[in-house]
Write a structure and sequence with these properties.
The chain has helices spanning 2-12, 19-26, 30-37, 40-65, 69-78, 93-101, 106-132, 142-162, 166-184. By secondary structure, it is mainly α. α4 packs parallel to α7 (106-132) and α7 packs across α8 (142-162). The longest helix is centred in the middle third of the chain and has 27 residues, at 106-132. The radius of gyration is 18 Å and the shape is elongated.
Length: 186
């Protein structure tokens, strides 16, 4: 049921998804939906929490699985080599939700900040490991670098979602990889 509701929210966005859309998608009646989740917003928050937890676990797992800490973070930034859970055509549910709702929904804004802070912590830790492994310069500021890499990662996601085409997206990813390797790698 949550998967069907998530798909509907993800495809149409929170505002454009009605309770009727959710009951149609899930096959659950309105009263059952309200009984299980309270209201549309509570259901959406539950779905977004689950999504963020899965994304965070996927990112952490991908970072930990790569024997090269630097390659792992570069892959995550560009969504290459399993660096993060696959980015679907509609983009990241959290990023979409933050863009659409964070100015008017404190709960979504808080969740977006929590997701950012979690990714920041993961990247800072990964950059520390890359420094220890001699893969990046020892004098970089890991927190500042992590912030810049997250901004680049979100830009890659925007390009992916914008429909610029696979060839141009690959060129952008290659340019990013060259830039970050020149800036940070040994």
């Amino acid at each position: 049921m949550l998967t069907a509701a998530r798909s509907r929210f993800w495809r149409d966005g929170y505002a454009a998804t009605s309770v009727q859309d959710l009951t149609d998608a899930t096959g659950v009646g309105t009263q059952s939906l309200y009984g299980a989740f309270g209201n549309k917003h509570d259901l959406f928050v539950r779905i977004l929490e689950d999504y963020c937890a899965r994304q965070s676990a996927g990112l952490e797992g991908a970072l930990a699985a790569d024997p090269s800490p630097w390659h792992a973070v570069a892959s995550a930034v560009t969504f290459e080599d399993g660096g993060r859970l696959e980015l679907p055509p509609q983009g990241c549910l959290m990023a979409n939700s933050a863009a659409a709702l964070s100015s008017q929904d404190e709960q979504v804004r808080a969740m977006a900040c929590q997701a950012y802070n979690g990714t920041l912590e993961l990247f800072v830790r990964q950059l520390g490991l890359a420094e220890e492994a001699g893969e990046i310069d020892a004098d970089i500021d890991a927190e500042q670098t992590a912030r810049a890499l997250i901004a680049v990662m979100q830009g890659i996601e925007f390009l992916h979602k914008s429909g610029i085409g696979d060839d141009e997206l690959q060129r952008a990813k290659s340019a990013v990889l060259q830039m970050i390797d020149r800036a940070f790698a040994r």
